[in-house]
Design goal:
The chain is mostly beta strands. The protein has one domain (6-225). Helix content is 12%, strand content 57%. The chain has 2 helices and 16 strands. Strands 1, 2, 4, 14 and 16 form a 5-stranded antiparallel β-sheet that branches. Strands 5, 6, 7, 11 and 12 form a 5-stranded mixed β-sheet that branches. A 4-stranded antiparallel β-sheet has the order 3-15-8-9. The longest helix has 22 residues, at 235-256. The chain is rod-shaped and about 115 Å long. The chain starts with 5 loop residues before the first strand and ends with a helix.
């Protein structure tokens, strides 16, 4: 009998985490990657890495304002709508701080971190038109008049308008961020995957965010043992064995005669 031979077959798989993509509030989450149905009976690991992708849910912020100053901005009017505006302007500085999110990802002794970054951005000035204060007779050029309908004299609705002009400093923690790492230097994780075909992890979330996806990428080589092959006799041996069988048959015939 000849000994069994071992053959190698390389392959790559990408596994999804047990923790499903979606919204994650602040707290700790325990999950795993299960490779029990994906890996062969015997294998060696050639490459092992994890990849997590998160996105900010952009749901909350806090505004901080400095001292404000209000001044008269002068009247304006709209001849198409017959509206007259007494404007004031309020100026101030402000800081808008969005909630910052971060994660800590633990695989055994390996600890990885990720966080949203400040994206900056502008915030538009707002104007608020108050309730009507009555009417005002005037011509299109702004000249006061006394009789509506005479010499271009028209009745305008009067409003007070407040323009809020805020010079913003925006701290906008938002956007996507990823956490990824090769695990080939983590012998405890390699041993765990070889023995249990699973990798457990803990995800700690500060703030709240969305898990877009999480994957465990494995490059491995399957070890396949071929079936043992029986020894094949030499052609001469086959001839001698056949002759011996014929001789035995002849002896039996002579005895019966």
């Amino acid at each position: 009998m000849l000994g069994a031979a071992t053959q190698a077959s390389a392959a790559q798989i990408s596994l999804k985490a047990g923790l499903a993509p979606g919204y994650l509030g602040a707290g700790s989450y325990h999950s795993s990657f299960d490779a029990s149905l994906a890996l062969p009976k015997a294998f060696t690991i050639q490459g092992l890495s994890i990849s997590f992708l998160f996105s900010d849910d952009q749901d909350s912020y806090v505004d901080f304002y400095g001292p404000s100053k209000t001044v008269a901005a002068g009247p304006t009017w709209d001849t198409s709508t017959l509206e007259y505006f007494n404007k004031t302007k309020m100026t101030r500085t402000g800081t808008r701080v969005f909630e910052g999110e971060s994660v800590t990802l633990s695989f055994g002794s390996l600890v990885l971190d990720g966080t949203t970054e400040d994206q900056g951005g502008a915030i538009a000035t707002t104007s608020t038109k108050g309730a009507s204060l009555g009417t005002k007779l005037m011509k299109n050029g702004g000249e006061a008049c006394t009789v509506a309908g005479k010499s271009g004299c028209k009745s305008y609705s009067v409003y007070s308008v407040k323009d809020n002009e805020t010079t913003w400093t925006q701290v906008n923690f938002s956007g996507d961020f990823g956490v990824g790492e090769s695990l080939m230097s983590q012998q405890d994780l390699l041993d765990a995957l070889l023995s249990t075909r699973m990798l457990n992890f803990q995800l700690d979330v500060l703030g709240d965010l969305n898990l877009v996806g999480a994957s465990l990428n494995i490059d491995y080589t399957e070890q396949v043992k071929s079936l043992p092959t029986a020894a094949v006799p030499e052609p001469g041996s086959v001839s001698l064995f056949g002759a011996a069988l014929l001789g035995m048959a002849g002896m039996r015939r002579r005895r019966k005669a």
